[in-house]
Amino acid sequence: MKNIVILISGRGSNMEALIAARDKGELPVNIAAVISNKADAKGLETAAKAGIATRVLEHKAFASREAFDTALLALIDEFAPDLVVLAGFMRILTPDFVRHYEGRMFNIHPSLLPAFPGLHTHQRALAEGVRIHGCTVHFVTAELDHGPVVIQAAVPVLADDDEDRLAARVLQEEHRIYPQAVRWFAEDRLHLVDGRVQVSGAAADFTRLISPT
Ligand code: GAR
Q1: Which fold has domain 107-213?
Q2: Rounded distance, CA 186 to CA 184, Å?
């Protein structure tokens, strides 16, 4: 069974969705550790309650981004992960760190990339008046919120939406697609071809990418 390490900075609801999928027998991975760059991340409690090893490495304790990333890499590698899963890990990563985990690090982002990389994605989607918004799981590359797309889910933007309502609708989809993406990885079904991801296997997996609500 593949080992994964999950990195968080806060609430950890995507992490929770991965734990829930594992507990239901839908995600055949060993969650070796949850690591946070913030000691007060709520997700740490959730992970500990689920019996998962937790670690805190506070970026504030390091003089530079490079020094933090070097220490983080060493900490992650103690758990020998096959896949590193960024789940609301709000840090810009150094090129060396990204290179080390090339092809074995996922991120989830609350927009239909390449639209709206960076912060405040829901607010920006509303300001632009887009009719469809969503979320993306992608392999991490050196460019922030870019990299080969593994899976996306779309939701409608409704006339009376505010940021919170739209964020909640997107988050529901995040919780659905992240376990799916990690499952594909665990099943060795993802192949990077010319910088794009191909998924081998059942076409049925793709039928629910667009949320009906
Ligand atoms: C999620 O919406 C995730 O997509 C986003 O942070 C939130 C974390 O929530 N990530 C990014 O914006 C990364 N660029 P969670 O801690 O409850 O999973």
Answers
A1: Rossmann fold (3.40.50)
A2: 5
